[in-house]
Amino acid sequence: MNVSSKSRYALMALVELDLRTRGEQKPVRLTDLAAERRIPEQYLEQLFAALRRAGVLTGHRGVGGGFTFARRPDRVSVLAVVEALDGAPDFEPSAREMSDPRERATAGAVWRAAGDAYQDVLARTTVSDLAERELQLGAGGPTYEI
Amino acid sequence: MNVSSKSRYALMALVELDLRTRGEQKPVRLTDLAAERRIPEQYLEQLFAALRRAGVLTGHRGVGGGFTFARRPDRVSVLAVVEALDGAPDFEPSAREMSDPRERATAGAVWRAAGDAYQDVLARTTVSDLAERELQLGAGGPTYEI
DNA sequence: TGATTCTCGACAAAACATATCGGGAAGAGA
DNA sequence: TCTCTTCCCGATATGTTTTGTCGAGAATCA
């Protein structure tokens, strides 16, 4: 039970995009984002397509093209990214799976409450928050690499 | 991203076991628990084996045998059940998967916080809480079936 | 001895995650 | 118009996890 690579990859690529578009509006190529963060390029392409459909990104074709944010990255929560890629993190099983009314009334409430707590945390952090944090760490933090 | 059938099945079977052993200590057969909750019997067998190894249940063989709680059901949290079956719900990817130190420092903290919030909720509810709730609902609640 | 019930390891089908492939469409510049 | 670049899209492949099933074995009781 852990976070999917999809969400991890996409989130890191978005942070990179935010860092590269501070001040400028110039689109950034998928290739560059993938290379910088060591993400399989064609896989990331798929993820960015989902983010574009979710209204997070805008694609620009041709020379000088690439991706820009469709809405400000400080309005893009981690939850929004996860939802676009893995679907809503719905811990409560569907009513169809949980056909016993006793289960829906008891355990169902627990799964729902836990899922809500999980989502709340993800909703409170944005792509820009992570980018900001990365800048601060890079400035005065540890400089050693692996 | 939803709760596994394993956890759901096991939890409902444990609630049923609690309801049937209130007052009496008599073991309850796996067959009866599985039938009452419409759980595949041989699958539940596997799950109960894990719960026994986790110190939640005790098995008794032979005629008049079955399962009893190894520790009081009001001390068995939903989290304990989930951990026994699906392993610790660790939302933060391992350091091996998350090899980029930038990711560990930024996104890693978010996954960890969200996972902790999730676990906290599950840790606060016990098998007995759910059994109690079911009793109350059954007493004066809705009696219609699907 | 024989019936009952849990115990255990292996196996199998289905679903899901993680990519990869190959062509297409739109935009920019010569 | 031609060509290059870059995003766009559907299909396919591969490996792992989940969800069970099967069959034999060991302990307990009458």
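Chain B has a mean pLDDT of 92.
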